Every structure is written in C-alpha cells, then in structure tokens.
Amino acid sequence: MRTTLDIKAYLDKDEQKDLLRLLTAGSVDDGKSTLIGRLLFDSKKLYEDQLDALARDSKRMGNAGENIDYALLLDGLKAEREQGITIDVAYRYFSTNNRKFIIADTPGHEQYTRNMITGGSTANLAIILVDARTGVITQTRRHTFLISLLGIKHVVLAVNKMDLVDFSEARFNEIVTEYKQFVAPLGIPDVNYIPLSALDGDNVVDKSDRTQWYAGTSLLDHLETVPLDNENNFTDFRFPVQYVLRPNLDFRGFCGKVASGVVRKGDTVMALPSGKTSKVKSIVTYDGELDYAFPPQSVTLTLEDEIDVSRGEMLVHPDSQPLIDRNFEAMMVWMDEEPMDINKSFFIKQTTNVSRTRIDAIKYKVDVNTMEHSDVPFLSLNEIARVVLTTSKEIFFDPYQKNKSCGSFILIDPITNNTSAVGMIIDRVAMKDMQTTDDVPVLNLPKLGIAPTHYDAVEKAVKELERQGLSIRIEK
User: Would the pTM count as exceeding 0.70?
Assistant: First the structure.
C-alpha cells in the first residue's frame, strides 16, 4: 500500500512541474543536435534501446570518429544523416526533477527559415550556438533577429567547441562583447552567455573543471531555473469562442481556450463584435466547475443572459478591450513555395476568426542577414517583410509583443489551401494612412424600400455572410 501511495505522490509531483519550451538555433556544424543529444545523454534521459541504436548508428554513419555521435538522436531523416545537417524541426521531450522540457531542434540554413519560425512560435527560450573558432557570424545575427521577431524573451548564447580554442577566456569574452553590441537594439530582455563543449559535455549538465574562470551555471542548471512566470498576459482577458455547446435545452455554453487574462465567476464580460454584456454564470470543465480560469486553460463559459455569440467572436472584459479594425501592420514571413501574388485575396485565420484579406502594401522587406530594408513588389519563400493588411470584416487583435495569442495570424491560399504566410501584428493603421481607402459595403434598408418587418431576416443573412468572411454594415 505504501508503494502505491509513493507512486501516486511521484506522479502528482510530476504533473505539477512547469514546462519550458525551447529551441536551438545556429549555423551548420555549430553542434545544435549534438548539444541536445548530449543533454539527453548526460541527464540520463535515454532508454537502453535508444542507447544501443545510437551506438550502432554512430559506428555506421556517425561524424564523431570513435566517439558516440549524439546528433543522430535528433537528425532522424535520411537526408539529414546523409548530409550531416538538420532540415526539419525535431522535437524532443524530457524532464528533470524540477521541470519538463520540449526541445525544438531547428535547422540553421537560410532556406529553412520557415521551419525555424514554426519551431520557435511556441518557445519560451532560445539557445543560439556559435562556434568558438568563428564567433558571431551572419547566421547568428539572422537567428537572433528571428528570435526577437517571435517575441522570445530568454536567450542563451552557447559558445560551443571551447575545447578547440583551449577553453580560452579571452576568446569567450571577445565573442560575448561582439554579440552584446549586436543584440542591444533588438530589445531582448534576458540574454545569458555560457562556454561549453557539446561533444565532451563541458558545462552542459555539470560545471566543467576546464573553465575555472567561468562563474555562471551549467546549461541544464540555467534551463531549470530560468523564470517563466511572466510569459503569459494575465491582465487583458481574451476568450476567442471556439464552439457553442448546446447538449440540451437547459445548457448553453461557449467553449474555447483562455488566450490571456483571468476570468472569474460573476465577472461582467462583453461579446465582440456585438458589444452586448452579461455576467459569467459558471466556468465548466470536464473535471467540474472552477471559480476562475487563466491561460492556457480550455473551458466552457456559461452566461446569465441569452446573448448571440458564435465561433470566431470573442468575450472580453468591458474595461480592457482589444483593438478592433480592418487595417493593421504586421511583420510577415512568406512560407509558400509559390511567390506572393499581391493582387490575390487570402483567408486570414487569427484566433478562431476566419476572414478574407488582401495585402494592401509591402512597406519594406528585411534582409535577415544584414538587417537592411528594401522595397520589393512581392515576397518569395522564407522572405520577411513589414506589410499592411486589410480584412473584409473587423477583427479583434492586440499587438503581438503584448499578446502573442491575439497578435498572430496565418494567411491561407483559397485555391491550394496552403499556409501562405505567418504574421505578427504590430498595430492598427488609420484609414488616412492607407493606400486604398475602400470601406465596408453599406446596406441602407430604408433607401432600398425594405420594410422593418423584414429587418430581422436581412440581419440573419448579413450575419451568415460575415461568418463566411464578407462584412456588410446595415443602416436602418
């Protein structure tokens, strides 16, 4: 009986650990996959069959001589092993006594920028590797810029292959000084610097005797202790409605994930875009009712009043509303093999809302290697630009730096259904600053001779068109 209790206590403790999502980035052969493999190996997080397979693969196709090639733990694609590079994003899960981790091993090549954006979209921390022999190079700057674009607040510059420069403190300090000068304007709040050797394990899991001059912690110690409390926005309540739950006549609830903020029973909430208000009657989950909910919990909210809310709409606190507009600026990464057609209409998916949109203007393209801006007529695969978008109906959003969930979106090609682009919203754009100033179509019912008795039917038809992405304003 005692054993059962101990196992239950262990599982309960494991369930309560917080989760750190991290990505690794760096140039080819900087040792990203090797570092993660070493992290898993030295922290004793590999099963015996994995170790046996790793030993066999290292002899057959490894690049570490007689030693185990830890990179093979992550580079699983045949093309990756043949070329000795990472192509796709590889995810690995492991946990220690203090924290759970999901690691995204992202590719370093510029041609796989979209893969890195995908891997970094949910990350809390980024490890950027540099080779101690070459220091800060073009890829280092590119990856740091992309990380700042994604709003990742914690960065570790891992100066790898210190064994090849005799663990020189002078060389480490030189690299740190150069990187600090580059990263300062990007506004990343937390940057740490660690000298290590992924192949030999120095400062990966345990502090190394070969870097007596280094006063900081090992990489794993840093990952276990980096604070994550400020990652979610608990101030501005945003609840995009995913589904309306109506199992019987006595229950009508709105299902979704709390994107940000905190909601409590009895809170007054406003439905957007209608602006109607009500109070939260209950917060329902599979395990029972809650007194309050916070991100990233998925819950069902019931309201005291019967108000019309459907998928794509949003519940917020009346005193903390998002921006509501059809025009906004965003940083956008083009992810489609087919180049952008600026005259094409796309679907935009933002939270649970889907609408039609067009690219009104490309303000400038960012050269991810030099940070220079240039004018371009369209974007090609992996290119990044600041653009202005116009949606066919008003959407509810926050700037990405303030609220990732409500400030991010994807563009979908209406013909191929491919994800054409991903974007991070910067701010709204005033109509006077738009290149084109078309407004929402207006349906003037009295002018059209439609009797008031038919208004309800017209409103229902317009609402259905709005759900399909076509916005129309009614004047009575």
Answer: yes
Residues 6+ apart with CB under 8 A from 336: 381, 413, 418, 419, 420, 421
Q: Give helix 169-183 / helix 138-149 axis angle, nearest 10°.
A: 50
State both tokens at 195.
């000298």
How does 110-120 read in b/e, with b if 16+ C-beta sit within 10 Å?
eebbbbbbbbb
Other Cβ atoms closer than 10 A to 9: 10
**What's the half-sphere exposure (Cβ side, CA atoms, 13 Å) at 459?**
10
Q: What are phi and psi of 73, to 5 degrees?
A: -65, -25
pLDDT in tens, 310-350: 999 999 999 999 999 999 999 999 989 999 999 899 999 99
Is the sign of the CA dihedral 90, 95, 96, 100 positive or negative? positive
Element (H, E) at 316: strand 314-316
From CA 42, how far away is CA 289, in angstroms rounded? 43
Contact present, 28 and 14 (Cβ < 8 Å): no
Q: Which stretch of 23-27, 135-139, 266-270, 383-387 has the lowest confidence by average pLDDT?
A: 23-27
DSSP H stretches of helix in 254-410: 404-407
Cα dihedral 319, 405, 369, 380 sign: negative
